[in-house]
Amino acid sequence: MKTRAQVPESSYGPNLYEAQDVMRIHALVKNIVELAEENRGKSHEPHWVSTVVGPLITFLDTLPSMMSVHKKRRIKALNISSVSIQPRELCPSSAVFGILDKKIDHALGFEPSKDELRSLQRGGPKYCVGEQPSINQTYAFAFMFMFLFLEVKVDGRDPLMQLGVWIAAELEKRSREGYPMDVPIPAVAIYGDDWYLWIACAINVPAVQRGEQGKAYRVQFMGPIILGSTYGHAGVYKIFHVLKAVIKWGLEVYQQDYVDKVLAKY
């Protein structure tokens, strides 16, 4: 008797995929492994992102299970490689390097429902930062709730630098707008084939330790956790398992503890 194909279980937890997704995932994983083998060591960063990383990320928002039905919000995979932090005052600064305005490659976010979008657009006077209404650290995707950030490097440099700048701007936006500061920010640093998960959070800083211009919080990173690798099929399945688990957290915890509370302000 012929059995239905299943996505392999991994050490990260049970099978999280819908039955209708399985064969499409099998085909994509096979394609990703072949593309990685073809381009490994010969590809510059933008090409690696567009041929290996990008298709894997953008595939996620095509899965039927990515819809948050009760809120009519949809998961969206975003290419933000050309998007700057805006307004610039959200950028962190360094005594050595000055203003740190870095870009990152991709993000996953929630697209609000039509009614929610109208409320956010009408909430202009209630926004505290910037010349344009925005719920995040951009104007290009002003009303997208971005909950996972990804950056890729293929030349030995560390993607955590750019992720750190982007996350610092996110937390500064939250702080100034009065958005929840206790919701963590997952981030994926990709070193060629190897994917690692970091979790960033804001830690309260006591008033006596802040100094004259010190912030009420500091950014702390926890990790890394090895997600998997595009060297082989099992590694790509592991990446899918963890990304789906992060999305499940987004659909449940992030929506309740962050999205709903931000929307309540408008």
What's the quick description here?
This protein is of the alpha+beta class and 266 residues long. The protein has helices at 22-39, 45-60, 114-122, 160-177, 233-263, and strands spanning 67-68, 73-79, 93-94, 98-99, 106-111, 145-153, 185-191, 194-204, 217-229.
Distance between the termini: 57 Å
Strand order of the largest sheet: 1-2-5-6-7-8-9
Low-pLDDT stretches: 1-14
Q: What is the string of helix and strand elements?
A: HHEEEEEHEHEEEH
What number is the mean pLDDT? 87
Coarse shape: globular
Q: Please give the radius of gyration in angstroms.
A: 19 Å
How many helical stretches? 5
Category by helix and strand content: alpha+beta
Total beta-strand segments: 9
Residues in helix, %: 25-40%
The largest sheet is: 7 strands, mixed
Q: What share of the residues does DSSP label as strand, in percent?
A: 15-25%
